[in-house]
Design brief:
Elements: H1 2-11, H2 18-28, H3 36-44, E1 49-57, E2 60-69, E3 74-83, H4 87-108
Antiparallel strand pairs: 1-2, 2-3
Helix pairs in contact: 3-4
Length: about 110
């Protein structure tokens, strides 16, 4: 919950200040490894902007971020923590399903 709150505060310019929120998104905009959420989102929505942070500890896998699709006109927060030996692949599949669902929901609301 706190990770989602953190991203929400950054997205609304209230993390510390608007300039620092912009710096935060600049830093988070360049995923160095194409795994977990990045792998899944790139497969389902190659044009999306991904601002994220992931981590691994023992058997736990975590990924979180803000996904923005300017072309389709939507953005959302996503945060997941899972304990599973194949968690990276599961997070990729999960992110692809969430993104496809968000796109369908956005289209249906128009």
């Amino acid at each position: 919950m706190q990770a989602a709150r953190f991203y929400y505060m950054a997205e609304t310019g209230r993390l510390v200040s608007e300039p620092y929120s912009a710096d935060f998104f600049e830093i988070m905009s360049k995923p160095g490894i194409q795994h977990k959420f990045v792998k899944g989102i790139r497969k389902s929505n190659p044009g999306a902007e991904i601002y994220r942070k992931s981590g691994t500890w023992k058997g736990f896998r975590a990924d979180s971020g803000v996904i923005v699709d300017k072309e389709r006109g939507y953005k959302y927060l996503i945060v997941v923590l899972v304990e599973h030996p194949q968690g990276n692949d599961g997070l990729a599949r999960f992110a692809a399903v969430v993104d496809a669902t968000m796109d369908r929901m956005h289209r249906a609301s128009k």
